[in-house]
Amino acid sequence: AITCYSCACNKEPEPKTIEYEKPYDYTTGIDYTASAKSFITDGKTDYVIIIPQGAGTDIIESSRELSSYARDVSGANLVVYTESEGTKSVSEKFISVGKTALAEENGIKTDDIKYDGFVIKTVGDNVFISAELERGARYGVYSFIERFFGVRWLTATSTHVPKASTISLYPCDIK
After folding, report:
1. What secondary structure does DSSP assign to 31-54, as a single string?
2. Distance between alpha carbon 25 and the CA centroid of its chain, in Å?
3. What would the pLDDT profile of 61-110 be if each residue is shown by its tens digit?
4. Residue 4 phi, psi dihedral angles, 5° rounding
5. Which neighbouring-strand residues pair with 87?
6. Are 43 and 75 in contact (CB under 8 A)?
7. In the chain, what is the straight-line distance between the N-terminal and C-terminal CA atoms, in Å?
8. Contact at 8 Å (CB) between 125 and 93?
9. Measured between alpha carbons, how far is 149 from 76 in angstroms, rounded to an integer?
């Protein structure tokens, strides 16, 4: 009995479990409990991509990739416009990429985002992908493509591009 007691008393304490307010997983920041908006239906969309006037290479190329992957996945054509081309006259539904005036008007703040970080946020029907640095906005576009289109970059030469004629857009606030 003494041996058992001494072994049990000298036992190392079990490590404490850390409880987080909200689990971190791939879907953090996307509200799948809310009703989804129609983003692409039967290969057609009302959305366009809006980029800032004078956008750099990262914004221009990532916007083109967003449009290209939307076409590859669903057949939908997402046209890229600069803000100066008349956002409201083009479409009421848009994806804003980069630090656009539209993002500022809708309260999208990136001043607390560091380095290559980004924000993906829905406001009403619209999506804002923004960052302090253009490279961060590019990473935000790639994250959007992964999360909503299901595209996976497996290796430098291999990409999984699923096919779906309909894609839903759930409210999100990803940082």
Report:
1. -TTSPPEEEEBTTB-S-EEEE-TT
2. 14
3. 999 999 999 999 999 999 998 887 755 555 579 999 999 988 888 888 88
4. -60, -40
5. none
6. yes
7. 57
8. yes
9. 12
